[in-house]
Write a structure and sequence with these properties.
about 200 residues; seven-stranded mixed β-sheet; UDP N-Acetylglucosamine Acyltransferase, domain 1; alpha/beta; 20 strands
Length: about 200
């Protein structure tokens, strides 16, 4: 088994490997080019995004600067938005669903290092995948740790450190991130009412 295969299978591997160095450089070159683009180069930005990630759906928007290790180990669904300074350490697979929004400086960190200093200093690493469901909003400065699964229809409060799985349909906040409450019909009614008030206001202009 190659180091790349070991890495993607959540096994201990050595990062100083020719194949991994080549993939790593490829990802860094593409993200450097992306981060140097201007607002007048939207088509070029979209083309680079399609090359950076292993798979990306329609209507994906990433605000530069953006940083990733490989890029190719990340798959993203439809209607994705990432604000400034997001970091994807995709040593393990990162899977992001449809209709997901990230605030600024969201970090998805799949990588880990052995606790034992001797093994760690010999260059061994590991990675556990991160999965994020559909219709998720992650606030600014959130860190998602290796091996975490975030369910559908979830809101993660800003500054949270997500160390454990988060189920569907909840608001979760804190360090470590904990469930604050379920998202319910009252939330839907409140925001639908505000949307209708906005539409009425627009119609009267």
């Amino acid at each position: 088994m190659t180091n790349k295969e070991r890495m993607l299978n959540s096994q201990l591997y050595v990062a100083n490997d020719p194949e991994l160095r080549r993939d790593f450089k490829h990802g860094r070159v593409l993200t450097r080019l992306f981060n140097q683009t201007t607002e007048e180069q939207e088509a070029y930005r979209r083309a680079l995004i399609s090359k950076i990630f292993g798979k990306v759906g329609d209507h994906a928007h990433v605000e530069p600067p953006f940083h990733t290790d490989y890029g190719i180990n990340t798959t993203i669904g439809q209607n994705f938005y990432a604000n400034y300074d997001c970091i994807f350490i995709d040593v393990g697979q990162i899977t992001i669903g449809d209709n997901v929004m990230f605030g600024p400086r969201v970090g998805l960190y799949t990588a880990g290092h052995p606790i034992d200093p001797t093994v760690r200093n010999e260059g061994y690493e590991y990675g556990y995948p991160i999965t994020i469901g559909n219709n998720v909003w992650i606030g600014g400065n959130v860190v998602v740790n290796p091996g975490v699964n975030i369910g559908n229809n979830v809101v993660i409060g800003s500054g949270s450190i997500v160390t454990h799985d988060i189920p569907d349909n909840v608001i979760a906040v804190g360090n470590p991130c904990r469930i604050l409450r379920e998202i319910n019909d009252e939330d839907k009614q409140k925001w639908e009412a505000q949307k209708q008030a906005y539409l009425i206001d627009e119609d009267t202009k």
